[in-house]
Amino acid sequence: MPVLSIQSVLKRFGDFIAVNDVSFDVEPSRIFGILGPNGAGKTSTLRMINNITAPDEGTITIKGQPVSENSQQWIGYLPEERGLYKKMKVGEQLLYLSQLKGLSKSDAKTSINYWLDRFEATTWAKKEITDLSKGMQQKIQFIATIAHDPEICIFDEPFSGLDPINSELLKDVILELKSKGKTIIFATHRMEQVEQMCDDICLFNKGKVILKGELNTVKQSFGKNTVNISFSGDSSFLNDLENVRVNNKSTNFAEIRLLEGANSQQILRTALDKVEIYSYELVQPTLNEIFISTVHADNKLES
Amino acid sequence: MNLTKLKIIIAREFMSRAKTKTFLLSTLLTPLFIIGITIIPIVITNWDSEEEIKSYAIIDSTGRFVNSLSQSSPEKYFDATNQSIDDLKELVKSEAIAGIIILDNEVYNGNTDPELIYKNGGISVFSDIRKELNKVWIESHLRAENLSPEIQQLLNTRLDIKTSKLTESGSTKEENQFASFGLAYVMAFTIYMALFGYGAIIMRSVLEEKTSRIVEIIISSVKPIELMIGKVLGVGMLGLVQLVTWVLMYTGISIVAAPIYLLFAGKQIAQTAASMPAQTSMPFTLPELELSYIILFLTYYLLGYIMYSSLFAAVGSAADAESDVQHFMFPIMIFIIIPMILLSKVATDPNSFFSVVTSIFPLFSPILMVTRLGVTNVPWWEVALSIVLMIGMIFFLIWMAARIYRVGILMYGKKPTYKELAKWIMYK
Predict the structure, then answer these.
(1) Which of B217, B264, B367, B369 could serve as a FRET partner for B56 with CA atoms 20 to 30 Å apart?
(2) Which residue of A has its CA nearest to B420?
């Protein structure tokens, strides 16, 4: 049974439809990526899952129950717009937030101590947030999200604004949570981490789900339609290729997406004439490429 | 409404402020400050009068005034009719005497005013002299008419009014009308300040949660209305603690004020006691606070606070920065300021139709009803009606504010128009 199920959900703000007939299921102990450009309806959807706003139509069930005050306690939510009380001590702040999530005072203390220890932050408990560095504040923010040991963790743009060390740390924590059987939901428009971590994805555009499924299945369905080429020499030949889209171009590497009518052998011959080739490989598209081409196709369809 | 979580929110909102030095200092120092600005001038005035009294030279060519003047206050007036005015002027210049008063037949006949030549002096000095000259002037005329001393005394008598208020229970209580006026003003002003002060605290706190971006984390655990009400009640408790402290301090002060005053002014009272009929030992009395008035005052304070603070919360949620709030504050401020403008009209004529209606209008009640309660006996049904109307108003305003609030706290970037605020209220 899916731990989270969204059925035909619609959310309006005045005349604007932010989420339009969205349905998807999230299975337990999976990492689920919600992708999409800015303004695609990701955050609106997450807010409805968190019972912050209510859908105008459709249903959202968590562990088989409609969202409610109760289901809020099973979720740890790291919103895109996040922060903490600046003038409150770290320990008191975490205690307050965990108690609001339904933990008893003593349970909250035990859990907070565990996580402060895990993040090597025990000595900060008596400090106010303003006295901490940006990176330290980010760690406290994670602890605030997961201290009540939620079954579902929802992270909205979790890596934005994180320094590389905290990015790694968060990744480790997420994998640790997954290994403990927690369900993770990501919302992001940055593909690299999603590609490395997600089991399932769901792609939003203009309030609708335009692609969803297991990550590998999705990628396979696009076939081996991408050429990775590394070379040395004048890269201007890339501009003359027909029926392709060149992504990720750098001085000696290019990712070439083959479109309708393109011939990979023809491209190889052209390249051989112009530059010295180190490697040439036909591969599955990257998630980034899938994202871009699907959103483009969807936008064209609309116009 | 989840009461456990509400309690946690109230506790945080209360404790995080009660623990600050600002709160402690403002609670203890505000009354001291108010006492300071009322008592110190009185004490200073009294100290002033204890200075060595310099005398006035009387040049009385009629001989009708000088004796009564120098008899009634020999240290203040002396007869200088036979001395040269130039010599006396030198004495005034060197401050050996305070001044010269010239009285002649024209003065006696009422054709001119007496002349006072002086170097230093103030309004209170002149008004004292004017009173004394008036008295001897009338006396001299009465004497000239050969009226009997009894009649002379009758004509010199000035009547005052002794006021006593008939209370609901039927007992009359002697009360100083000026004091209860003053009290009503102070109480109304306290509520006015509290509405603004605590309203601003609520507003800033909502704004801070919004700008620090913690609010979305909190409302993923509790309902926005729970956060809003918890905040309103937490800060309201803070205000209640402060007010109760002040009432206790006031009671304490009114008990010890008389002895302290005597300590400062004892000498002067001893001097005047002989010449004055035994009367008040203090130039003013602190009106006694009745328990029923305190309870009603606190009730109106609390209801008024809740009514307005939810509006301030809505304003804080609609704004993005403190600079935006002025725009939305205006309509709220109007409703707090209007009763202050009406205050003196209501206080001077508390039972007029106008006063009754304005004091029952819920948004004005906290200030105007407290004023009326201070100066008159308000029929119980008017009090009950105004409380019922305020409670109704509270439900309506909290409902409206909460609907603006739950949308506003998640809106960043653009300043909403009033039309948009109205739309927010209608969102599902």
Answers:
(1) B264
(2) A14
What residues of chain B have any CB closer than 8 angstroms to a CB in chain A? 2, 5, 8-9, 12, 16, 208-209, 212-214, 216-223, 410, 412, 423, 427-428
Nearest CA to A81 out of A125, A46, A128, A30 is that of: A46
Q: How many residues does chain B have?
A: 428
ipTM: 0.84
**How many Cα atoms are found within 13 Å in the side-chain-facing hemisphere of A253?**
5
- Please give the CATH number for the structural domain made up of A224-283: 3.30.70
Q: B156, B190, B209 — which closes off a domain?
A: B156
B56-60 and B99-103 strand pairing:
parallel
Q: How many angstroms separate the Cα of A11 from the Cα of each of A14, A54, A55, A134, B425?
A: 10, 8, 5, 35, 16
The CA-atom distances, in angstroms, between B231 and each of A50, B158, B264, B308 are: 22, 58, 46, 13
**Secondary element (H or E) of residue B102:** strand B99-103
CA–CA gap between residue B235 and residue B18 (Å, rounded): 9
Q: What are the start-end ranges of the H helices in B50-74?
A: 66-72
Return residue ranges of chain A for CATH 3.40.50.300.
4-219
Per-residue confidence of chain A (303 residues) as pLDDT tens digits?
Answer: 899 999 999 998 878 899 999 999 999 999 999 998 888 899 999 999 999 989 999 999 999 999 998 999 999 999 988 899 998 999 999 999 999 999 999 999 999 999 999 888 889 889 999 999 888 888 899 999 999 999 999 999 888 878 888 888 888 888 999 999 999 998 988 887 788 889 999 999 999 998 899 988 888 888 888 888 999 888 888 888 888 888 878 888 888 888 878 888 888 888 888 888 899 888 888 888 888 888 888 888 877
Beta bridge partners of B59: B102
Q: What top-level class would CATH report for the domain A4-219?
A: alpha beta
Q: Quick: pLDDT tens for B326-374.
A: 888 888 999 999 999 999 889 888 889 999 999 999 999 999 999 998 8
Contact (CB, 8 A) for A75 and B224: no
Tell me, what DSSP letter sits at residue B359?
H
Tokens of A245: 């889209």
Domain check: are B69 and B206 in the same one? no
Contact state of B214 with A75 under an 8 Å Cβ cutoff = no
| Nearest CA-CA partner of B164 in B379, B380, B377 | B377
Chain B positions touching A54 (Cβ under 8 A) are 428
Mutation for A interface: B3, B4, B19, B220, most A CBs within 10 A: B220
Residues of B in contact with A88 (CB under 8 A): 16
Residues B141 and B284 in one domain: no
Domain of B334, in residue numbers: 176-426
CB distance B224 to B405 below 8 Å? yes
CA B132 – CA A242 distance, rounded (Å): 115
- pTM (predicted TM-score): 0.77
Residues B371 and B262 in one domain: yes
Residues of A in contact with B419 (CB under 8 A): none
